Inverse folding.
């Protein structure tokens, strides 16, 4: 059975896609799975740099940290229709080849629409959308009535996902599971948080996604990048991260996210 394609996507920048992609890659590797990673945001290269930082840390400290097989893709601009079709064919073949040879293929995407971004969404068996806990970030998913605070119409990213689902069905692939993951949650319950949760629950029923509680706002996510480490490395004695209550809580949140879905064969 081919491996599961897990796409991390949102048509909004800075929502935690690359951070989540790296943490899911680390989770799967820790479970002993064979993992391929794809950075579809090759121009910015956050995931690629994260993985390179991990390889460099491994070498500097003389310790063997698990690494995925990584592919960086840079989207070309101003293409003719033929060039674009060629890129799409190459990318589709790359995903299929990686999936043949891995348990999971994790694809990190840029925070903006392009032709390969759309194609990645067609190939997603599992789509995870991290969302900052704000009504501004919710805008890509739905237009909200400001008076009644109810959903008026789906937003443009919801439409992108809908179109990807149609194309996926035409390819006779099984329907994808879509999760919306709330990121950078405040540690106190606020009115804003309750409004967003309620909106996500009603929107999820309408456009078919499952809302997940997600990850709290934690400094550790910003600190680990340069060393290429993740929360999963915290209790590895070979790394020099000091464990705190906040790390333990964040790791627990990550485990809950991981348990929300199954890879093929699980
Ligand atoms: N739960 C969190 N707590 C604190 N900081 C976070 C959290 N998640 C992400 N961040 C920080 O938010 C910033 C954006 O994260 P990241 O680069 O992963 O987002 P992105 O969606 O990939 O962005 P882009 O759209 O630019 O690719 C980074 O500085 C990251 O360290
Ligand atoms: Mg990113």
């Amino acid at each position: 059975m081919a491996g599961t394609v897990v796409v991390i996507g949102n048509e909004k920048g800075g929502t935690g896609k690359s951070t989540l992609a790296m943490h899911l890659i680390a989770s799967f590797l820790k479970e002993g799975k064979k993992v391929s990673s794809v950075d579809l945001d090759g121009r910015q290269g956050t995931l690629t740099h994260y993985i390179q930082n991990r390889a460099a840390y491994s070498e500097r400290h003389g310790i063997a940290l698990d690494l995925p097989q990584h592919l960086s893709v840079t989207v070309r601009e101003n293409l003719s229709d033929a060039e674009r079709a060629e890129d799409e064919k190459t990318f589709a073949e790359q995903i299929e080849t990686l999936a043949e040879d891995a348990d999971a293929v994790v694809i990190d995407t840029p925070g903006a629409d392009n032709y390969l971004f759309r194609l990645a969404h067609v190939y997603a068996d599992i789509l995870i959308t991290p969302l900052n806990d704000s009504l501004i970030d919710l805008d890509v998913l739905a237009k909200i009535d400001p008076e009644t605070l109810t959903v008026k119409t789906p937003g443009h990213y919801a439409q992108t996902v809908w179109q990807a689902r149609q194309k996926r069905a035409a390819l006779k692939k099984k329907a994808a599971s879509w999760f919306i993951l709330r990121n950078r949650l405040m540690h106190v319950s606020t009115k804003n948080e309750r409004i967003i949760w309620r909106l996500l629950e009603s929107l999820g029923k309408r456009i078919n996604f499952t809302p997940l509680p997600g990850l709290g706002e934690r400094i550790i996510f910003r600190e680990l990048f340069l060393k290429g480490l993740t929360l999963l490395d915290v209790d590895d004695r070979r790394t020099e991260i000091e464990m705190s209550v906040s790390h333990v809580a964040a790791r627990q949140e990550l485990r809950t996210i991981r348990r929300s879905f199954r890879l093929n064969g699980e």
Notes: The longest strand covers residues 126-132.
